[in-house]
Each structure stands twice: as C-alpha cells, then as structure tokens.
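ok so i was messing around last nite and threw this chain in just to see what happens. nothing serious, just curious
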Amino acid sequence: MKLSIVVPVRNEEKNIEWMLKELHDNLKSVEHEIIVSDDASTDRTREIAAKYATVVPHITDVKRTIAANRNNGAKVARGEYIAFIDADIFVPEPDRFFKILLADFADRPNLTGATVKIEILPEEASFWDKLILWIVNAVRLIDNNWRHKGMASGEFQMVRRDAFEKLHGYNEFLPIAEDLEFFGRLADIGRTYFEWNLRVYTINRRSRELGWNRLLWLWGVNYLYMKVLHRSYSKEWPPKS
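result:
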C-alpha cells in the first residue's frame, strides 16, 4: 500500500461527504486507502463516511484530543506514507496532487514530512482571507524550506510512515498545537517541505465564527507556549459549527 489518508472526525455530517467523495471518485492512479477515525460521533458521520472509507470508531463518552484521534487512525494504516486531512478540507485534483507529493518524497530521501498551501474556497474568500492566508503560507514556506524548522497546521500533513512510528505519532496530551509540535519533531529527524505549487481548500469555520483577530491571537499564543513552555495555552478550540 502506497498511501493511507487519515481523516479525524467528530460530528462532521455536514462536511465529511464532499471531501470523501472527491477522494473516492477521483484518486485513481495512486494505490491508497481512506481511513476515517471517528471520536464517538453522535450524528450521521460514521454512516456517511462508511460509503467511501474504512471507519475506525472509538466508542467512548469522553472526548479525546484530535492528536489521539489521528493516532487511532494511523494504527490501522498500511501505507508507506500517511496523509492527515481535516474533515472540512477539499483536495482538488487528488490524482495530480498526491503524485506530486509522492514525487517530492521520492526525490528527497531525507524528507520526513510535507505540507501545502491552505486557502479558503475562492467563492467564499474575502480580501482579508486571501491576504492573511498568503502571509501564513509564506511563513510556513520559509520555516520548512529555508529555516528547516518544521511548521504545518493539521489541515494537511503528509509523513513517511517510518518517521511517524519513530516519533510515536502526535502528542495525545496536547489539546491544541499538537500539529505544530509534531511537525517540529519531524524536522528534528529529517527535513520537512512546503509544496508551494499545491493547495487544499478549507471553508475555515474558525475565522467565520471567531473573527481573524481572535483566531490569529489564539494561533500566536499557542505557538509561543509550545515553543517556550512545550505545552498549549488553550485547553481546547472553541467548537466548530
């Protein structure tokens, strides 16, 4: 198996089908599996996901961290590479998309992780959405490709399976910034890469619900806490609608 795609979910019936259907219908030339790791959803998430993917449920009344949910999906993954994708992310032209990323890994034997540009759907993006995310993407390009520090958000991260296992996956004790912490550790054992020529789209519910000022503050303070104190500032993200 070349590629495992792991999608962590909890009550995502409103968003899960559009992204899974695109992967299921249009990812044809890369040997792959799609794994939906469910954190005890109480809506129709599992039912919808089962039409397109293998569903790995964790039946419990206690909500886990998203790090634990990602790790739960990775436990059953068989791919040489594992791509972690959030439930509200859309991958355009998935055949071309993953061929390019797999070629990046093949061309760089020391590459442990890769990420791509995150953009809001063009029909929904405001000027400020485009500007802020352009800056965020540029910072991630510099940190990964030039400074070799490793930075990527959880919307999309792709890793070598052996590197993931060497690091024992995501830190399940971190409720927030687990994605930044994990990608930083990937950079410690190899190189991480930002593929500027690829993008995934998000509906970016958080910027709509919180506003960019509060969201950027939360990103910044949790990043600083992670870098300086090795823990997250927030106990959890405000829930997405």
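not much to say yet. The chain has one domain: 3-205.
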